What does this fold into?
Amino acid sequence: MTNEHKISVLLVDDHAVVRAGFRMLLASQPFIGDITDLNQGELVSQEYERLQPDVVVMDLSMPGIGGLEAIRRLHKQDPKAVVLVYSIHDEAIYVERALEAGAMGYVSKNSAAEVLAEAVKTVADGKRYIEEQLMPEIDDVRHNDIEHYRQVLDLLSPREFDVFCRLAKGMNAHEVAADMHLGYKTIANYNTQIKNKLRVNTAADLANIAVVLGIIKP
It folds into this structure.
């Protein structure tokens, strides 16, 4: 990136107030150029192709396909796409899943405003950026005796992982279907597939796995 070039950003978040705040924050930075925002992951591939932004700033928890699946699809469309996740989730498993899907960086929404700006600039320069406070979380997971759970969770697709997280947090299939804008039968099928892959039978089993991995608090 040259000194003259300003970073173009595609911002993806389903909350209008959040998008407005992010736009204001990023627009105040002298190295940020055009900013376009979207409210759902389904639109990312098409708009990315049209706009060719330098950085995609992506939320994870969105109705529909969700951020993880949107990242996976975008990375398949263009392996050089630069995605920075900006999420309320600061648990290690989310960071790792985002990086595995193709993200270049990860920042928590609890971080200071200047951290997001720094992260955008860093990933635009082709360098990975993970917020410093998230690193101990990742290290703890890697050195703990839960490797088995992580391995079985790797069997889940990004969409299945999104469904798993909702079910583990106590949502029923109807609630998950409404939240993800999918049919009840589709979620019921995902529920069965997830339990089969993880070799568990109940929602309590899913919750236990999520607790061990730090996805939900005990």
